Amino acid sequence: MRKFKTESKKLLDLMINSIYTNKEIFLRELISNASDAVDKLNFKGLTDASVQVSQDDLAIRIAFDADARTLTVSDNGIGMTAEELEKNLGTIAHSGSQEFKQANAEHQGEDVDIIGQFGVGFYSAFMVASKVRVVTRAFGEDIAHVWESDGLEGYTIEEGERAEHGTDVILTIRENQPGQDGEPGESYDTYLSEWGLKDLVHRYSNYVRYPIQMLVTKSRQKPKPEDAGDDYKPEYEDYQELETLNSMTPIWKKRSSDVTPEEYNEFYKATFHDWEAPARTISFHAEGTLEYDALLFIPSKVPFDLYSKDYQKGLALYSSNVMIMEKCAELVPDHFNFVRGIVDSADVSLNISRETLQHDRQLRAIATRVEKKIASDLADMRDNDREAYEAFFENFGRGLKYGIYSSYGMKKDDLADLLLFYSAKQGKLVTLKEYREASPEDQKAIYYAAGDSTERLAHMPMVTSVLARGYDVMLCTQDVDDFCFQAMQTYDEQELKNVAGGNLDLETEEDKKAAEEAASENEALLSAMKEALGDKVVRVAVSPVLTDAPSALSSDGPISLEMEKVMAGQAGAEGIKSQRVLELNAGHPIFATLRAAEKAGDTEKIASYTDLLYNQALLVAGLPVEDPVAFAQAVTELMK
Ligand code: ADP
Ligand code: MG
Questions:
Q1: Which of 487, 546, 556 is nearest to 518 (CA)?
Q2: Domain boundaries for CATH 1.20.120.790 within the chain
Q3: Which residue has the CA at smallest separation from atom 14 of ligand 1?
């Protein structure tokens, strides 16, 4: 017996003893090797005139024997000579070996999942097999060779027989393991079942270029006997038929003009397990230094787990029709986490590791292009199918806003024009651009209000004051809105202003002067009111903009009232408070009442009225009244 090289042995040990759950990928690896071997022969036939290869015969076969517990993957490809067997299967010959050595050095002694990190090739067979036998005959040779190993210490190579060139990899599938200490056991029976194998081929190798065939059992009606009477009941019999399990031509490699929308929809539903057809299908092909095909879908419904912790974003990554990864997160940014799809590039290595993914330049280049493509497709939908876009935005708009916020505004240029907000003036959803285009020449800022419902916001004093001046206000009801605008700061060189944030730049010089005068005339009253409120507010001020309501709350500084509300519900952010300002309307009759009380030295009345005004303003802003019982009593008192 020949011994495995040390590094091979380490990998084998790891593989067999690891808790690695994705054992099923072994079939993908064996099929991909078979496909490579057929490729090599095919290539020889195309480049060497003395080699005749019949394209039609090239195929990969899968066969299983449940009783003998064997599973065989065969190909009629190039095969291996004895030296090649030794070189290729006696050591880790594939390109992943360097990465393996590194990963192994870094994780010495840890019970790590490094197997899942890169293609492990041929050796992955030992995850499910207690013995592997390889019968192979190299193209152009007369004798075959047999390699055999239990995956522990070493292997044997002997001469053998095979009718033609090609390779059979015969696995003796492990016995099922009973569960221990309440842990579930391990069953290997799927790898010996027609259903299980079909499913694996379908999932991992559906787009391998050569037919992957298997004898499948079917049922048919027996021919009706000549002498059958009237009471003849049809009889059935089982028979076996060679079936091609894979679809071979990947739908994403086809030109989109050659695929019907129905085909795309069916593919989407089957591949991504959605009941509904996608809202959009985006397909494109990139050429040049980096070649790849991409097929992307925007779901028409929010995936049920999109906002759960377990949700994994990502696109399936294929390399030359072989799936490398079901969800490659690096291919889509977080704000497009709802996009599903496939990227296939021959330029990406089958053995790319999860660790090197992030640094892979090719992958980054693809991701950049994918992001741009999604954004431009959404812009197209916004401009040409507004109804569909509004439905999309209802589903996924929150994520786009969050993308601006979480990138500290860096994504603003890409995403701002994709946002929609409810316009108080127009009574419908508008983009920021539409808002700007509809605003009067003299308007200096973009106004928005944040709160729980558009109906309520529409009646807020600050909103009605802004609207009264002929300016529109965007009514924002999602908790992320205020944060998104704070991160953006400006749009098209205009400041984004929360109407409850003070400093609205709305007032005319006249308004301003009037407010300043009222403030200085009533200094004593304002300070008495501030005293009555104590720490609840940082200031009591005369508002230059309030038109109808007697008072309103605004805030100084970066934390708005709405942000305070949102953060109150978040762990760790409970203590974050806005700096509240009680703004008064000096033209309101209540202001006159307060002035009179101040003149008469009625501090009690000032205190109780101030409290009422403050609580009213809280209610209007959608914030809880601090002491509801005292508030109700005070109102009752007034009504007597
Ligand atoms: P990789 O496919 O990444 O090279 P593997 O561990 O999967 O690594 O396979 C190791 C080598 O064994 C292959 O490169 C190939 O030369 C050889 N090999 C494996 N399976 C076959 C096969 N069915 N026919 C011919 N050669 C094979
Ligand atoms: Mg391989």
A1: 546
A2: 509-639
A3: 94
